[in-house]
Design a protein that fits this description.
monooxygenase activity; monooxygenase; heme; Cyt_P450; 54% helix; alpha+beta; four-stranded mixed beta sheet; binds protoporphyrin IX containing FE
Length: 494
């Protein structure tokens, strides 16, 4: 039995291990070619991990990919951005109140920002309104819970599937259900319930399929379901299979909330470590938004203005220092010659798997000037990427050709279709939060006493420790994330 299990797992692993050479690169010029050359593809076998339900936009190539891409981008069309702006402001406003009820301490920022991103996406994609109440017998969410016959909430199901992706991929379904391990049981329940939630969403959209066919401005759910469900005027086979409908609902939700949620968490922590950048953002917010209430903030005028100034610079610098996706993979499908940034040519043979190392490309000191910090001090701070967090580099007019060296949302035909969504969302969240509040690292009274009552010294020590934690405690699942506790205090601005 044990032997059978082991060989099953090895079969699954070997399915996506590819023959051929491995190329690692952090050279932006090579990375750009890997994103755009026609004979370079995504390694679909490796990406089977995402295909829990069926093939998705992220795991297919060629004509099949074009079909998926068309469906997904239709649902992410620019008309959704105003709703993203309004929902992000609404969710952040209500979250501030929720934090206040909890004593205004954010123990794990990611816990909240992931949910915030999920709430925004659920509203835009599915017209599903999630709020900050816990799931009780009385609220809307638990109606959904019983309507779908689920044991756990929509959010718990999604977060558990995400956390247990490796297990779900490696362990056959019947074993996941029967093995007596807590992790397997959790994964099985989450997988079953999450499938029911998605089927319920699909079913509701499918019930009004004829109306959807002529509706302008479809949500992403509607666009996906329409691509997989026959209508009266088009009763024949549709471009997406049933499995791919569920697969794409899952993939877009995962790609959209995991990335933006984790980026926002890094932003909050970095801004708590560097309060001078909070002050600069607040100065910009006061000048731009004055005393207008948040429902009068305009997506057309305020968003681009905020993005151009200090707030936009902070977001870029967060994506540079803590780009949540640290690696991408590409496969060279036919031998090709590439030229690196020093002009040297390289012949790359067929079947070369290429690892595009974003983390290194965005922190290369030859491209991104490090701060003037001594080697000894860097060692003391565990060489944390937080040391070189410097948003002002983006306000310097001399940063030209940014596109050539900085591409957090990818490049070429597979460039992130959710980029405008993410940018509007992240600007709206930070604007709402910092217009009303400030964040502070928590300095404990014990530490103040150890520093003989010197609060400044205690703060400096707390900050140093936070910078170290931003290296030592950053973990990786599909994206990098700060899962461990690093408490920050929310203070209302005077
Ligand atoms: C901070 C936020 C985000 C970052 C850093 C990010 C980054 C990326 C990158 C680098 C890619 C390209 C992958 C490749 O070339 O293989 C990508 C693809 C993708 N992203 Fe995003 N993304 C973010 C937010 C979003 C959001 C909010 C959505 C949806 C609402 C989204 C949906 C997608 C989808 C569907 C793809 C696959 C595109 C394809 O394969 O054609 N992303 N993302």
């Amino acid at each position: 039995m044990a032997q059978k299990l082991q060989s099953g797992a090895i079969d699954r692993l070997s399915e996506f291990l590819l023959p051929g050479n491995l190329l690692w690169t952090c050279d932006p010029v090579i990375i750009k070619q890997l994103f755009t050359l026609p004979n370079v593809q995504v390694p679909v076998k490796m990406l089977k991990l995402y295909d829990i339900w069926g093939p998705t936009i992220g795991s297919v190539e060629g004509e099949e990919w074009k079909t998926h891409r068309k469906v997904v981008t239709y649902g992410l069309n620019p008309s959704t951005q105003l709703s993203v702006w309004k929902e992000s402001i609404h969710q952040t406003r209500t979250l501030i109140d929720r934090w206040a009820d909890d004593g205004s301490v954010l123990t794990v920022a990611k816990y909240w920002t992931s949910r915030l991103a999920l709430h925004v996406i659920a509203s835009i994609f599915f017209d599903m309104k999630l709020d900050w109440r816990e799931y009780t017998a009385q609220d809307k969410a638990s109606n959904l819970l019983s309507e779908c016959g689920c044991r756990i909430s929509f959010e718990s199901a999604l977060f558990t599937v995400l956390a247990r992706m490796g297990l779900i991929f490696m362990v056959p379904r019947f074993l996941l259900r029967t093995l007596p391990f807590k992790a397997c049981q959790e994964a099985h329940i989450a997988l079953t319930d999450w499938t029911k939630y998605m089927q319920n969403l699909r079913q509701k959209a499918a019930e009004k399929i004829d109306r959807l066919a002529t509706k302008k401005g479809k949500t992403i759910l509607e666009s996906i379901v329409l691509a997989g469900t026959p209508t009266s005027s088009s009763p024949n086979t549709r471009p997406l299979s049933e499995e791919s409908m569920l697969g794409n609902i899952w993939f877009t939700l995962m790609a959209g909330h995991e990335t933006a949620g984790n980026t926002l968490a890094f932003a909050l922590l970095l801004l708590a470590i560097y309060p001078e950048h909070q002050l600069a953002i607040q100065k910009q917010l006061d000048a731009q938004l004055g005393s207008r209430p948040s429902d009068e903030w305009s997506m057309e005028q305020d968003f681009p203005a905020l993005q151009k100034g200090h707030l936009g610079a902070v977001l870029k610098e967060v994506l540079r220092t803590y780009n949540v996706i640290q690696f991408f993979f590409r496969l060279v499908a036919a031998a090709t010659t590439m030229v690196d940034s020093s002009g040297q040519k390289h012949d790359v043979p067929t079947n070369t798997l290429c690892a595009l190392n974003y983390a290194a490309a965005f922190q290369n000191p030859a491209t991104w000037a490090p701060k003037n910090v001594s080697e000894a001090r860097r060692a003391e701070l565990h060489h944390s990427p937080a040391i070189d967090f410097d948003p002002s580099r983006w306000l310097d007019e001399s940063v030209k050709d940014e596109d050539l060296i900085f591409f957090p949302f990818g490049n070429g035909p597979r460039k992130c279709p959710g980029m405008p969504f993410a940018q509007v969302e992240m600007v709206a969240v930070l604007a709402t939060l910092f217009k009303e509040c400030s964040l502070e690292l928590m300095v404990t009274e014990d530490l103040v006493q150890t520093c003989n009552g010197d609060r400044n010294m205690a703060w400096e020590k707390t900050r140093d420790e936070a910078i170290r934690r931003m290296k030592d405690d950053v973990g990786a699942n599909l994206t990098i994330q700060m899962l461990k506790e690093l408490p920050i205090l929310l203070l209302k601005r005077k």
